[in-house]
Amino acid sequence: MKRWAILLSCAIASAAGAQGSGELYIAGANFDFAQAVERAVAQHPASSKFFVLATGDAVRGLSVVASPELVEARGVGAARGAVYLVCRRDIERELFRLTDLVSGVVAVRGWPPAGSSELPSGSNYYPGEDPATLPKSTELLRRLRSTCS
Questions:
Q1: 2: alpha, beta or left? (left if phi > 0; alpha if psi -120 to 50)
Q2: pLDDT at position 105, please?
């Protein structure tokens, strides 16, 4: 019985630790910006860091000229610990400029081309990237890079 109690407490601690490490929510495909932020906030009742990647039309939620509804959603997310991300490839394709977005939005690089040495071997981060602005989880970081490739 004591063994089960220890295992249960370890499982609860692991789940709590995973939540604290930050989840990734993607706005643009199945959820618009406000829906993605609403979902993230609902799954993070206490203030803790989580990540919202805006793609496609959802980037409007991060625009300096966003509608009042999107500004409100963005503010609620930020107050709860959201880190807002966009794909660097979209900036390079000139779909928008980083200066068109609110301060603090992080541009994320996807995977480098095959055979490239841009991403140092054994590292999850490109030179100059701030790991504090990206998910700590290798799985989430891979999902983020794949989405932005």
A1: alpha
A2: 98
CB 59 within 8 A of CB 29: no
**H or E stretch including 34?**
helix 33-43
The residue among 117, 94, 109, 119 whose CA lies nearest residue 144 is 109
For residue 18, the Cα-to-chain-centroid distance in whole angstroms is 15
pLDDT in tens, 12-63: 333 333 344 579 999 997 899 999 999 999 998 787 899 999 999 999 999 9
User: Under DSSP, is residue 136 helix (H, G, I), strand (E, B) or coil?
Assistant: coil
Closest CA to 108 of 93, 123, 82, 130: 130
